[in-house]
Amino acid sequence: MAPKRPKGAGAFPKPVESPAPKRPDPNALYAALDLGTNSCRMLIAQPKGSQFHVVDSFSKSVQLGSGLEHSGRLSRSSMGRTVQAMRVCQQKLRKHSVTRMRLVATEACRRARNARDFVRQVRRETGLQLEIIQPEEEARLAVISCAPLVSTKTEQLLVVDIGGGSTELVWIDLSSVPNRERPRAIMRLHAGFHTPDSPFPAAKVVDWISVPLGVATLRDQFSDVDDDAARYALMSWFFEENLADFAPYKDEQAREGFQIVGTSGTVTTVAASHLGLKRYDRTKVDGLRMSSDQIEAVIQRYLDLGPIGRRKDPRIGQDRQELIMSGAAILQALLRCWPTDRLSVADRGLREGLLYAQMTADGVLEDGLL
Q: Which of 22, 35, 56, 63 has a CA-to-CA distance to 221 between 20 and 30 Å?
């Protein structure tokens, strides 16, 4: 399946912002819901300085895209599981009296022939209005969520968001931005690209791509391969083939000044395994830097464990055991293309990007990182 690409490289759409009649109450709460191919996740947060404070959250594996690869439709059972999860989200939104929110769906709903029927069902049964966003916006939101993790020494940045149904890659050139301004320049992408006369130093998006292969869809394509190691190798090479049209794929990058930021359950699980955590600890994982060798060692350990061993591993668990090897295959393909000692682990993503974008548009964040 050919990767989806924009008509012109470096052309993010400017976000559509609802006009606000007056400045919002800085104490008001915001919500962001990300309905992906595998999971339904939501954050409710309050602006706090240049960041935000999470008040409530929700995460549930709903497997909305189960069977989609073969049928092209969302199944009745997967829609039922998702609607139940959305009901919990609706109860939390009502409990906290949240009025400012964005509830978005991604690759599974982009691809499913009956996605509009599903959106109507969610509206009818929960009162919540889902918005199906395009790959361009999904990539942009993932990028700005990772801005705090960008090193001031980084000149070339690759942000990777490995989802359930698709993987977004964005390559950004920061070499013309003063070192201290580089994280701020990434955050400013929430408003699209700056015009040439912008007073702020701008991050240049060299190229971006949305590959319609994520941990769930890639696994489904190779589910008929019985051998664990062979399936893993096939998935990794197949994913790399889908990067052929990504401009930086053909360019060799120097390790100095190059950084990859990875945001996904795959990346955080690999980090937790590397640290040997008995219980997941976001404070230890978010922002962790891992070398290619360290990541390769964790992946090899996963292969040595096999399906039964991975299922028993508390850092992986039964749900993620079915997805971790396809995610690892994607991650290894990226490291094969761009070896680096500076892969940063981001326990953040679309939800955080949605919150940053809403709060920034409303002017309720202080001018810290921004």
A: 35
Contact 170, 135 (CB under 8 A): no
Nearest Cα neighbor of 124 from 87, 85, 98, 95 is 87
What residues have CB less than 8 Å from 55, skipping those under 6 apart?
29, 44, 45, 46, 96
What is the distance of C-alpha 29 from the center of its chain?
23
Q: Are 31 and 98 a contacting pair, CB within 8 Å?
A: yes
9 band by pLDDT with thresholds 50, 70 and 90? very low
Q: What is the pLDDT of residues 128-163, one digit of tens each?
A: 999 999 988 898 898 989 988 998 899 999 999 999
Same topology, domains 30-134 and 137-346? Answer is yes
Q: Which residues pair with 299 in a beta bridge?
A: none
CATH of domain 30-134: 3.30.420.40
- Tokens at 44, concatenated: 């409710």
CA angle 268, 221, 308 (to 5 degrees): 55
Q: Confidence class of residue 22 from pLDDT cuts 50, 70 and 90?
A: low
Domain 137-346: CATH class, spelled out: alpha beta
Q: Give the SS3 label for residue 48.
A: strand
Is residue 300 within 8 A of residue 206, CB to CB? The reply is no
For residues 355 and 44, the answer to whether their CB atoms sit within 8 Å is no
Structure tokens, 16: 């559509």
At which residue do the structure tokens 């006009």 appear? 19
pLDDT in tens, 227-263: 999 999 999 999 999 998 898 877 776 677 899 999 9
pTM as predicted: 0.82
Q: Please name the residue that has the structure tokens 């390769």.
A: 296
Domain regions of the chain by residue span: 30-134, 137-346
Cβ–Cβ < 8 Å for 37, 216: yes
For tokens 């890659």, what's the residue?
Answer: 169
> What's at 47, amino acid-wise?
P
Compute, in degrees rounded to 10, the torsion defined by CA atoms 361, 364, 365, 370: 30
Of 126, 117, 166, which Cα lies nearest the Cα of 33? 126
pLDDT digits (tens, 9 = 90+) for 159-193: 999 999 999 999 999 998 998 888 888 877 765 54
Task: Tell me the one-letter amino acid at 336.
Answer: R
